[in-house]
Amino acid sequence: MLQDEIIQQAMKYTERLFAGNSDGHDALHTLRVYKNAQLILESYPEADRFVTLSAALLHDVDDHKLFKTENNANARAFLREYELPDETIERICDTINVVSFSKNKGRTPETSEGKIVQDADRLDALGAIGIARTFAYGGKVGRSLDESIQHFYDKLLLLKDQMNTDAAKLIAARRHSFMTDFLREYDQETGK
Ligand code: NI
Fold this sequence. Notes:
This protein is mainly α. It has helices spanning 3-17, 27-41, 49-58, 73-79, 86-99, 101-104, 112-123, 127-140, 145-154, 166-190. Helix 2 (27-41) packs across helix 7, helix 3 crosses helix 5 (86-99) and helix 7 (112-123) packs parallel to helix 10.
């Protein structure tokens, strides 16, 4: 099967897997991360396109908050349906694992593919979409608005300086300044 067809199938797979999830870790998040990765890839011709895009689409399918899988079981189950070399499957799983904060403890990925997918995922935590996701997730886990606001200072405002690629740094800078505008307005309206 052609690589592009496998990528199309991976999109459908995540739609099925995340059906019913609406906390910001869902098929639409996956699709945005995929599009971010496509954009960053334009400046990284040396990265393996198929590994990068597959990892972008599958990066949350074994997320421990959603699934109780071990050793990338969902990603492997999907990839094994196609006649891909073991080495390619391992590279995709390695890329997924360096992106996962819980598995990688926030270390910088060594490969171009890992750098791109990590940036693509982090970009989705920034800007208007980052704000929307923070409150959607906060509501789901019972956080107050102020607790969600604290998450910006604890984590989201730090992401701009943690981007690996120049392409992502540019997008992150704009999204970051949108968030700081939002926080300023929030403080003003709530009388802080
Ligand atoms: Ni993600």
